[in-house]
Amino acid sequence: MDSTENDPDPSSGYGQAVSSNTIVMALSSPERLPADSRPHTRATSINIPTSPRTPRSNGAESRFRGHFSGPFSPGPFSGRSSGVFMTRPSQPPPPPPEKDMRPYFRSRRIKKGTIDRPELRAKDPRWIWMNIIPTVGILMGLSIIAVLSWTGYRSVVNHKYCLVFDDDFSNGIDSSIWQYEIQTGGYDNGEFEITTADPENVFIRDGQLVIRPTLQTEEYLQSTTVVNLTSAGTCTSNVPGDCILQVNNTAEDIVMPIKSGRLMTKNTAVIRYGRVEIEAKLAAGQWLLSQMIMMPAENYYGSWPASGEINIGIARGNNATYNGGNGNQRVQSNLYWGPDTTEEPWQYTSGTRDSLHSEYHEKFHTFGLEWTEDYIFVWVDQRLAQVFYTKFKPGGFWSLGKFPATYSNGSLIQNPWTGPGTGPATPFDRPFYLALGVGVGGTSGWFDDGVQGKPWSDKSTSPRLDFWKARDQWAPSWNESGSGEMVVRKVAMWQQCDNGATDLSAFNSKR
Fold this sequence. Notes:
Helix content is 16%, strand content 25%. It is built from 10 helices and 23 strands. Strands 3, 6, 7, 14, 19, 20, 21 and 23 form an 8-stranded antiparallel β-sheet that branches. Strands 4, 12, 13, 15, 16, 17, 18 and 22 form an 8-stranded antiparallel β-sheet that branches. The protein has a 3-stranded mixed β-sheet with strand order 5-11-8, with no helix packed on it. The relative contact order is 0.13. Residues 1-73 are annotated as: Disordered.
């Protein structure tokens, strides 16, 4: 057989050149072809004499190599070769049309009229209750909701309030509203400051009230062993311990190392039930304590805390990392009450509120109090931002406190909140006044021992001296920009003037 006549085009990819004169070619497996196209011969032997031939062009050779792949892939054409080309077997028949491969669909729907439905021919009269009962239930539920909503709305008492004062400090420190509170007793917290009327501690700047603590001099602390505010005629307390401080320098004790300021409305503006709003930036700086509180105008039920204390807001000056987030970004509000200082379960009436992505010294916030014969409610910036809410319940604070029958020494604990006029709100049913100040340190537990390098211990015999010796650690934080002072922009107070809120005739003045 002449190789030039039967040589297919290598570019088609179906031929292969070989160098042997005789080759047996295996055709495609019959199992892979349709039955009607299988070849009758499994192999073909072809004898081809070697003869020179003209090589194909480089383009053809490239096409040949590009199309052919597999184990018989040839190398490049040489100038002279002889070979055999394999012819592609017949192609399988095309697949059947797609529609022929789809499964046959038969509807399973029940045809109308093929099933007997006797319920449609004769309706059961009882079935009407299947509609009536749910409808009545829904209407009754809506009625109950409406009644409860209306009852709740009616139960909210909208009291009438009369303005006591509204001060923006544009006229300075108004003496008809404010008095300087001058004491050296530590304000029941064992604080380290003496509060003064010194203009370096309380002053007006840019139409705003500023309360800023300052340090005493080393010379003053070394030379002073007695501070007697009573003899000076300046003490605003009638408790001797708040007015006189005597120390022994040889016992490593000193008088108050800090001067600070505190304003109050005790002699001019007191309320029994009402509202208070304070716009302020609180003090930042280590061991500072911003205070917005209400104190009893008289200790009617006994000395602190028997006559109560309302903390509208107290905040530490330490930064936000202090003690797991108890720094200047958190304000705490609570009530102090109890038969004496050893039994004061204030934790039952306390709450906190964090400033959003900031600290309370960075911008002004509004601290609000609402106090009625039924509850005390404290909020920050808006009424929805509640700090704490305490409802006065039957049994009063004596029941809430769950006090033991006796002290640790065996003596009987007496209930101080009995007598004419008392009730669930006692001791928070008497007139209170407002006080604003900045405290420093203290031994009452506001600053936990061993936290953030606290330089004194609450049980130390010389906590003031320990604090003073570490002034190089904490004093720089008071001098940072925007720190070391509480700034008050506005204060307003309202007295509840309905429901006999100002009537104290039910109380017996002699206890």
